[in-house]
Specification:
Blueprint lengths: L17 E2 L1 H4 L9 E9 L4 E11 L4 E12 L1 H18 L7 E6 L2 H7 L9 H13 L1 E6 L4 E2 H11 L6 E7 L4 H11 L10
Amino acid sequence: MARRKTPKTASKPYEPPQMFLEDLIPRMPWGTQFIVYGDGAGFSHPHNGGWCTVVYDDLTETYEVLFGNCSNTTNNEMELMQVVRGLQYIDDVLDSPRTTVWVVSDSQYVVYGAQGRYRLTGNRWLWKALEHFKRRFTVEFEWFDRAFFVVPDHISKWASRDARDMNRVIRSTDPKDWKEVERDWRDRFRPGSSGESD
């Protein structure tokens, strides 16, 4: 008797876990004051790119969201840019030298490069800036495999498609319901949105 063939079922595409700030806060290394995490986006390599970084201060339980864009750039440059901009914000605006910062990224280029596990090529001025801040702060880097940082992903992609030059902070708040606030950002910066803040 011929063996009946079992029909093949289509495998679902891999969906990376969605990460919100409220998911990262409980994972903060002990003694850490700041979380810096975000995303970079580059299209038509090399062409327009956008970046977005979130800086969370555990001491005051507040956070800032910064974003900007660049022309003639690459995805790796934008991934590195958002980390440098976050550390620069802590240094310039918050004036917190000798503090401890936890940098979370889904970019091996950024994390392994900062840890000395990759040979650094390209983007030399950004790597020099990162080394400067590593001397200013105690910085711990952690790679989150295939993580999807919801808000920075949407904002960086939106910024990369905008022709205007932008480098700004869009909100500073004392969050009470992380997911509600981040859902508002996700909707505001979804494809086709104007992205204007209140």
